[in-house]
Amino acid sequence: MVTTAVKRQGRQWWALAGFVAAVVVVALVGSLAVTGTQDRYGSLVKPPWAPPAWLFGPVWSVLYLMIAVSGWLVWRRVGFSLPMWVFAAQLVLNALWTPLFFGMGSFELACADIVALLVLITVNIGLFRRVSGAAALLLVPYWAWVAFATALTFTLWRSNP
Q1: Does position 5 have pLDDT exceeding 50, yes or no?
Q2: What is the structure's pLDDT at 33?
Q3: Residue 117's closest CA among 148, 83, 92, 144?
Q4: Which CATH superfamily is domain 4-159 in?
Q5: What is the pTM of this model?
Q6: Where are the beta strands (DSSP E) in 33-101?
Q7: Which of 92, 87, 105, 109 is nearest to 161 (CA)?
Q8: What does the alpha-carbon distance between residue 135 and residue 138 come to, in Å, rounded to a whole number?
Q9: Burial level of 67, CB count in 10 A (0-12/13-18/19+)?
């Protein structure tokens, strides 16, 4: 006979898989909605501190895993409450950046999107901190990367009219 605790633990792992799937969808929206992003990025006038195109994939892979675990940790404690709605909203903004920047070529809209994303990640960290310190800490590298990406997006917008 399977105990209730064992069943609950099994559901928790399925829920984590769901969070991983959600961030994979966010990543796929960006990568499938637009083709030729590496070529386009390579053709842009970039500042000397801009990372090479190959670095984005590995960095985002690690960040997306951390984002998924962070969301899962909070969801386990509070379910779909305000922190999770902010979490979902920032994932939507995250998914929009690549189609805006590379698909539409609208650097200005991409810049507005990423600034709003950075604000929502900041709010998300604060809300998550009230629920789980570990969940909040898992979002800090994401915040740092998006802060860097915000500066890069702005610079690319201004350098590539």
Answers
A1: no
A2: 66
A3: 92
A4: TspO/MBR protein (1.20.1260.100)
A5: 0.86
A6: none
A7: 105
A8: 5
A9: buried
Tokens coding 120: 């929502």
Tally helices (H) and strands (E) across the chain: 6, 0
Residue extents of the structural domains in the chain: 4-159
* CB contact at 8 A, 120 and 93: yes
Whose CA is closest to 28, among 20, 39, 40? 20
**139: exposed, middle or buried (C-beta count within 10 Å: 0-12, 13-18, 19+)?**
buried
> Most distant CA pair in the chain: distance in Å?
67
> What are the Cα distances from residue 135, in Å, to 75, 124, 139?
10, 10, 7
Block residue for tokens 């960290």: 125
User: Do residues 35 and 102 lie in contact, with contact meaning Cβ atoms separated by under 8 Å?
Assistant: no
Question: How does residue 6 score in pLDDT terms, banded at 50, 70 and 90?
Answer: very low
